[in-house]
What we know:
This protein is 74% helix and 0% strand. With 164 residues, the protein is mainly α.
Amino acid sequence: MTAETVAFAGVAVVLLASSLAVVLTPNLFHAVLYLAAALVATGAVFLLLDAPFLFGVQLLLYAGGVVTIVVFAIMLTERLVGQTIRSASRYLINGAVISAAVFVGIVGFLVQAAPAGPRPVVTGDVTVALGRALVGAFAVPMELLGVLLVIALVGALYFARSEP
């Protein structure tokens, strides 16, 4: 067992535990903190896969930016000042059954797949190829995603505003 395998197992345990805590925690603020831990663990997976650019993007955009926006939205919404926000985990049994079915399907697929050989060594800078891919064929979807995020932000501001 290599050190990379042990590191991946540790990151996987942290990612699984924090992801479960996000959906099972009744306090919304604590759920956002667990979400931050899950996003950082996802970034660690990218780092273990020799993708330092994606690791940096994951930390800056998601773990830093999105979580900060959500925390400010929770803490600065006027209607919720002084109130504890509780989220109920409805349909917990249904979600657990569906999650177990998906897990069994993925494990079944992995068991039937042929074992992969050793990973090829990454040569050169992958960031250049990733940048060309994003600016090339995926430029329009990336721009549409940016527009969608701006629309979501404007919608959140509309719902969070105080009534005149």
